[in-house]
Amino acid sequence: MKEIFSKLEESMQKSIGVLSKEYISIRAGRANPSVLDKIMVDYYGAPTPINQLAAISVSEARTLVIQPWDVSILKEIEKAIQTSDLGINPQNDGKIIRLIFPALTEDRRREIVKDIAKMGEDTKVSIRTMRRDAIDKVKKMKKDSEITEDDVKQAEKQIQDITDKFCKSADDLSNEKQREIMAI
Known about the structure:
- The structure is a single chain.
- The chain has helices at residues 2-24, 74-83, 106-143, 149-183, and strands spanning 40-43, 46-49, 54-60, 63-68, 91-92, 97-100.
- By secondary structure, it is an alpha+beta fold.
- The protein has a 4-stranded antiparallel beta sheet with strand order 3-4-6-5, covered by helices on one side. The chain has a two-stranded antiparallel ribbon with strand order 1-2.
- The model has no long low-confidence stretch (mean pLDDT 90).
């Protein structure tokens, strides 16, 4: 039984971790190198993350500088950024690429806040699905006469407590990121 609880907590913690990483990569009007984490560049036939091909630094509050270690890959990096959903046009001077992040408008902030809320809700749905699967395992154990009815009730309560804890964690992350976006 303890194995079910520990696996459940581990899975839910991974969901919260994924949500947290998604929130970090949200463009919030400031230059943040993590917005490039999901962008892959075709490097000699293999999709490679930009941070493995170049040094990425923040030169000003809203400017990212990408300096590839191999200048011949500059065009491919530029093309990968243009085809991504980043929405920023890279400026290539032959040695480095600059990404200038525009200031967020009120409408764009509200759009981002809606996306943040949806991501949070999706995470909570996945957490609830994990809860359902764990409860099904407990009921199967009861059906196989491995545990008693009292054990089932106790396990369901414990599973619900774990679920509530992680749903609250997802809500807290979501609310914090929404406040951050609206405060910019």
